[in-house]
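DATA SHEET
Item: assembly model
Revision: 1
Owner: S.N.
Input lines:
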Amino acid sequence: MRLVAPAAEGAAADVIAVRRLGKRYGQGADSILALEGIDFSVPDREFLSIVGPSGCGKSTLLKILAGLIPATEGEALLNGTPIDGPRRDIGVVFQSPVLFPWRSVLGNVLLPADVQRLGREEMTRRAYGLLKLVGLDGFERRYPWELSGGMQQRVALVRALIHDPALLLMDEPFGALDAMTREAMNVELQRIWMERRKTVVFITHSTAEAVFLGDRVLVMTPRPGKVGDIFRVELPRPRSLDVMNTEKFGGYVRRIRGILNAGGGLE
Amino acid sequence: MTMGLRGFSLRLALIAATLLVWEALVRVLQIPAFILPEPSSIFIALYRGMASYLYLDHIGVTVAETLMGFALGSALAFTLGIAVALSRRVEYFLYPFIVMFQAMPKVALAPLIIVWFGLGITSKVVSAALVAFFPLMVNTIVGLRSAEEDRINLMRSLAASRWQIFWMLQLPNAMPYIFAGLEIAMIFALIGSIVGEFVGAQSGLGMLIQSMNFTMDVAGQFSILLILSMLGLLLNSLVIEVRRRVLFWDPSQKVDAVGSAAAEKGGVQ
């Protein structure tokens, strides 16, 4: 499958619909408003980047979408049904790979299949395919501690994809990697995404990463977390790293900076 | 720390020198055998005891008591540790008992246990189990609660049930703690059975030490001490061997196997 421009979503139903979403931690005078009036939707097969400074509530938003914590206002719908707890049709990639050292690469990848009691045989076949897709074929029997940081995060990505979720949530997945590995992983992720075409919500604090990967970019401003802007990135795919040097790319990055500066988000 | 062949032979030389000085001092100063026997008579006592199979029977009894006490104490500690770690309510009600028993020197219960369970092997198994119990229970609780939040969040995001979180995450995650507890429990079980035998028994190495004490056979006692220290080493290496196989993934284990750089990486995440 090869889609050159993100223009095909037209009539597709929204996978995610977030309406007037708010989150308040604590109660009364000491409570903290983390999120307020968040509104957005993600159509099928779209890659949405959410960018914002630390403390803008983007991780809180992701936890709500993953069903790990409840919202205090509004609602988030996944394929039309409210997210009111963890769901089996979501895959999550966290900032650290969170691999279990007592499981091999294959064992880690099959964790969701074990939890959800999916057919081990078919899932193993899928796992081999996905590991090949991320360039880890031959590493199935290795253990996490034998892998580099970038390889570990790829295993985490395959684990999030193994049960074929409707939605892939990524919470600063490359934040712990060095700059060069990170760029390589961005290119890699784009390639994988173009091949599998999942609906992705990708959270990052890097403006460049958000623009490079996103079909659209949602900019969050802090205290409380709000949607500052949401816009489409009109850059053809596949994007190479050189795209970062173009005037158009620079324009998108400046647009994000402008909003964050106005919101007092950047020091 | 390894010092190579040179270091090893130096070590042996040091042990030999110590024995020689000991032997010489006892002979020159004419220290009576019931105070401090010379090494040669200790080894002779050891040889005689082993050759006449007298020691073997008692070794068998003590090892059996220790292993059974270890198994019983560990099984109870493991079960109760899981119950306490998983249920706040169980913890709340058991807490006073745990605190009281933990503060008490368990060996002080040995005379009572002899009264309750008799002079046979049962009382020694019970006293070994009692002493072995606490270190493993505490380690089980701490281990089960040590699962990182990230890992729990991952399991929860997959809609895992509480039992799945326990089986797939908490239990394997607790294994390094549990094995550390088992190592201590094994040595403690040996202490428990020896103390039990001191207080009242018909056989066993502790009983043998007691009876040798009455006949002032100090060389014999030293030879038993030597055996006990060997037993301790052997029982400990038994646990360590099992641990090495089960915990191949634990960073503190595999420093030798994979190299420290890789081990460090595995330990970070």
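QC remark: Confidence is low (pLDDT under 50) at residues 1-11 of chain A.
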